[in-house]
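can u do me a favor
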């Protein structure tokens, strides 16, 4: 298929451009000439494959026209390169190396990651800048309102935001955004030398905001349990990735989370409810969905009010997706296995005009790794894998999801096709000082790596997460909420 391949590679180079507008015309011309080439020279399979290709061009070309044209988002879609020099390696603290996840072989990249994870290295300091550079809504001018991925981020009381592995709920009732996440404001320790670094359960913190930049702490809305050692939320246990959705029928705010014991053998989901977005939440129970182990998870509420649980299962080898019951307090019996044998975790699900997307990470403990984007027209699957969505920065940053792990993707209502990618930059030597990486994510253009598609042609719009040292929300991001 040389003709089609050359068209595809032209498409790829276009996708790397910041302004994708002209690509539709170019694709049409490219397809016309490849078609006549085929009519003259090629038959059978080649012809069928090309017809597939053209039909997908039409489909995705249409999708493409939805976004990337807004002047407001053009700045967010600028490709920003990084040319930093990695500091010279120092002797890595052997304890630090042992503490990080064991990787096969010892590539240059894994040595750099080990160095980065070592809290005493210069490389670590580069990506965990000190509090003097903090994003601070109590000082200076709110009108700058820049996001600085990786910097300390203070709330409106001047304290570092503690909402790790979090997610955001837009509450129609109060026209306010609520950010829920793990409060990790305690000491990091290990139960035993082979175990993962941990912090005792403090609870789920909630922050409120109207502008997504200055966040007010609403308190710990689901606290850890201090005395009852058999309770799921006893401080010695694990509570991760809390996500909250609102049930319009029961008028309850429903929180789902990963519940585990200190050595991650319980592998369950937990459920809590509240009448108010700011809690307090009452903890109901934990269980293994459909009897399967469940570690990293998320929930997604669709436009039609149906909600779904996605969980990493079977020893993190695959994900399962299941609709929730109408009250959002349990899973239904429907279940599908997706991304089987892919070893993906940290799922974040979002939707644009009938297509569902998901960002996941590989499973490598606290160490960062390359993200993948996935897409489907049917939320229950099958899901297809598109490729690494990271754009800009440099090779090192793209291979590490900008040194972070996905946790949530928030739609910007006034800018369809533009989202905020929310991720955690874990700091395993001091988990409480883990940082937030928020970056613009956009859907538009053709995917340049449709890894699962049988003919190897792009069939989905490309998902791009754009690196920026600093950025802010464009005008009009909130407009369409009534
Ligand atoms: C910035 O905005 C927050 C929340 O709106 C407010 O509490 C704070 O006082 C503002 N700071 C300044 C310096 O205006
Ligand atoms: C401790 O927690 C367990 C599990 O939630 C519960 O069944 C038990 O009643 C609790 N005990 C006390 C004394 O509250
Ligand atoms: C898990 O941890 C508990 C104590 O927290 C311990 O009793 C148990 O033996 C551990 N299980 C495994 C498989 O390590
Ligand atoms: C959830 O549904 C399953 C299957 O119907 C049922 O066995 C289980 O008891 C339910 N759990 C709760 C907490 O209602």
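np, heres the sequence
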């Amino acid at each position: 298929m040389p003709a089609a391949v050359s068209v595809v590679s032209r498409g790829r180079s276009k996708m790397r451009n910041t302004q994708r507008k002209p690509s539709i015309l170019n694709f049409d011309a490219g397809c016309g000439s490849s078609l006549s080439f085929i009519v003259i020279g090629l038959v059978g399979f080649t012809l069928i494959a090309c017809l597939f290709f053209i039909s997908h061009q039409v489909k995705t070309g249409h999708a493409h026209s939805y976004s990337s044209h807004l002047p407001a988002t053009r700045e967010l879609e600028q490709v920003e390169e990084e040319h930093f020099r990695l500091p010279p390696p120092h002797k890595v603290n052997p304890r630090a190396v042992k503490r990080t996840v064991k990787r096969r072989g010892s590539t240059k990249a894994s040595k750099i990651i080990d160095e980065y994870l070592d809290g005493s290295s210069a490389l670590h300091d580069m990506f965990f800048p000190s509090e003097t550079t903090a994003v601070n809504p109590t000082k200076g001018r709110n009108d700058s309102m820049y996001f600085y991925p990786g910097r300390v981020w203070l709330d409106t009381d001047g304290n570092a935001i503690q909402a790790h592995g979090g997610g955001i709920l837009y509450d129609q009732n109060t026209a306010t955004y609520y950010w829920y996440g793990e409060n990790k404001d305690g000491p990091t320790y290990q139960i035993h030398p082979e175990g993962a670094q941990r912090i005792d359960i403090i609870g789920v913190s909630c922050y409120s905001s109207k502008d997504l930049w200055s966040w007010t702490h609403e308190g710990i809305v689901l606290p850890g349990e201090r005395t009852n050692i058999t309770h799921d939320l006893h401080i010695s246990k694990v509570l991760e990735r809390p996500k909250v959705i609102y049930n319009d029928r029961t008028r309850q705010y429903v929180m789902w989370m990963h519940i585990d014991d200190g050595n991650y053998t319980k592998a369950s989901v937990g459920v809590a409810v509240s009448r108010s977005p700011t809690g307090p939440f009452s903890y109901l129970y934990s269980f293994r969905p459909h009897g399967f182990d469940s570690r990293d998870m998320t929930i997604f509420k669709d436009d039609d009010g149906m909600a779904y649980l996605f969980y990493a299962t079977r020893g993190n080898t695959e994900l399962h997706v299941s609709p929730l019951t109408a009250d959002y307090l349990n899973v239904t019996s429907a279940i599908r296995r997706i991304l089987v044998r892919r070893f993906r975790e940290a799922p974040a699900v979002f939707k644009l005009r009938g297509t569902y997307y998901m960002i996941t990470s590989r499973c490598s403990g606290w160490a960062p790794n390359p993200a993948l984007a996935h897409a489907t027209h049917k939320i229950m699957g099958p899901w297809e894998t598109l490729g690494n969505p990271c754009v800009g920065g440099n090779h090192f940053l793209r291979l590490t999801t900008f040194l972070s792990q996905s946790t949530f993707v928030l739609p910007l209502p006034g800018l369809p096709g533009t989202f905020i990618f929310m991720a955690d930059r874990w700091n395993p030597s001091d988990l409480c000082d883990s940082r937030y990486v928020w970056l613009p994510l956009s859907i538009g253009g053709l995917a340049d790596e449709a890894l699962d598609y049988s003919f190897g042609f792009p069939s989905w719009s490309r998902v791009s997460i754009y690196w920026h040292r600093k950025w802010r929300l464009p005008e009009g991001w909130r407009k369409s909420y009534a």
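Residues 1-67, 97-105 have pLDDT under 50 and may be disordered. hope that helps!!
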